[in-house]
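Please produce the structure of this protein holding heme C.
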Amino acid sequence: MKPLKFITLCLLLTSASPSVLAESGASIEEGKKLFYLERVTSKGEKMSCTVCHTDNPKQSGKSRANKVIEPLAPVANPKRFTDQAKIEKWFKRNCQDVLERQCTSAEKESFVMYMKSIK
Ligand code: HEC
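Below is the modeled complex.
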């Protein structure tokens, strides 16, 4: 590669990196979509995050075993999104329950962004 070409490429890469990061796909809007997404599972069950967490993240929900689930929005429940192990554990379980796959990092990031954006 000619030196000039190489320098141009380096310049392009450095100037491009911030937008590449922003294009990781994570956004409040995507997080909201994930929360309200409804899908029918392979077992024919209609599933959504709202089934257990209700359609209002500031409200308490109910688990399958009828246990109270504290609100997901940190504005209503400051303990949310403070314990990384807990966050990962429940994303793993709940994404599997609703989407029948694991959530991507962008989806998880978006979801947390959305919850934190709720006033
Ligand atoms: C079958 C019921 C159920 C469904 C459906 C469900 N959740 Fe949950 N979720 C729970 C329970 C139970 C907990 C743990 C109890 C608690 O934290 O209060 C929890 C906790 C969480 C947490 C932990 C947050 C923290 O920091 O404490 C996250 C994140 C989460 N859920 C995300 C989701 C997402 C995303 C979806 C939809 C893809 C979803 N949940 C659907 C039952 C459910």
